[in-house]
Amino acid sequence: MNELPQDIQPAMAKARKLEWWTLLGMGSVVVVMYFAMGSSQAMKTAFLEDMLGLVPAATFLISASLERRKPTEFYPHGFVRVNSLAFLTSAVVLCAMGLWLLYDGLTGLMKQEHPTIGPVTLFGQTFWMGWLMIAALAYSVVIPVVLGRLKTPVAKQLRDKVLHTDADMQKADWHTGVAGIAGIVGVGLGFWWADSAAAAAISVSILYDGIKNVRTAGAELLDGAPRALASAKLSPEAERLCRRLAERWPGADIRLRESGRYILADVRGVHPPPQLPSLDELMADDPAWRLAQLSFTPPGCARGLVED
């Protein structure tokens, strides 16, 4: 499975290009947010979330490179599942950062911290720094929204959870931008709690995405049944494949698991047929490349080791 199916090679090339653009675009956002951050809790939270936006892009590029490596003596099955490891890494980082940011925002509310946003002089003009923060937040929304829209169809075509997580994070960034702008405006209007409340709201969104992705990534690494891209529910493709296999071999124990972007199927309790059906026939209207392995475990062999 180290050879990428021809059907998805153009999509993979496009995905790599988008992720390089993400590192460049989000890197510029991080720089802008850093210099406009000031003492605002909401700005700090949005800045850290934008930094998090670099993690899925970097892990995708690394895993996409390793995925193509040939099997070795120590990894005889190749490196296809490095995509699963990358997905888990991104999810854990999201959870950890979400928890920390939520704690930081809530403690700010409990301590009743009153952030101050004073004037700033730029190019000889003095104005309220809040306007600079709002402009930076607006810029931090535009690039992620555009990249997220471009990545979503590619992630669905590749069945790539890392890329889909990245697209989801970036599509949700406009929530972060709007919440941050609301917090800055609230402070300007005299509502001291608006800044910390906006930061806490942003962190809840980050934590939710992280927990959802950890569940899916954990199931994949534990050889669980294939999961859907956008949730921890079972993949509709896998459910349809399971039904087709059960109809073809009634009474068999059908077991499916996911390895990276591929589905591995094991039909237990039956002898392999003289001629295997084609992948197109088994997958029907679903992409045939998704089914990377179909194995059979004859009756009497399903228990594993033979007892003395």
From TrEMBL:
Keyword set includes S-adenosyl-L-methionine: no
Membrane topology value: Multi-pass membrane protein
Keywords: Membrane, Transmembrane, Transmembrane helix, Transport
GO MF, one example: monoatomic cation transmembrane transporter activity
SUPFAM superfamilies, per database record: Cation efflux protein transmembrane domain-like (SSF161111)
Residue intervals of the Cation efflux protein transmembrane domain: 31-222
Protein name: Cation diffusion facilitator family transporter
Gene Ontology cellular-component annotations: membrane
Transmembrane segments: 20-40, 46-66, 78-103, 128-150
Main location: membrane
Keyword Membrane listed: yes
InterPro entries in alphabetical order: Cation_efflux_TM, Cation_efflux_TMD_sf, CDF_Transporter
Species for this entry: Pelagerythrobacter marensis
Subcellular location: Membrane
